[in-house]
Amino acid sequence: MSAPLVCWNCGAALDGVPQPISRHEHCQKCFEALHCCRLCRYYEEASSIQCTEDRAEPPTNKENANFCEWFSPRGGAHAGSSAADKQADARAKLDALFGGSDE
User: Fold this and answer.
1) Which of 18, 37, 67, 100 has a CA-to-CA distance to 89 between 20 and 30 Å?
2) What's the CA gap between 71 and 20, in Å, rounded?
């Protein structure tokens, strides 16, 4: 069973969005662009260019609407972590790398 299609930014369900997703389509809740790298199945944050599709020419800003012909929406694209969670995770990784914090 695949994950439901949700907004990559706010996690709102995208059940009413017509398929295929148009470049002009935006989330009804947060108004972010939907035809963008962040909602694509080829988007991978850990990759150097953040795109696993070899034939694609990924744009610099992964959150803007684009004309990529390889775009394919993926279910469960919402990261769900806040900036504070990301900061704490980064701090924990630094502490592990350099032997702890001296607060």
Assistant:
1) 37
2) 10
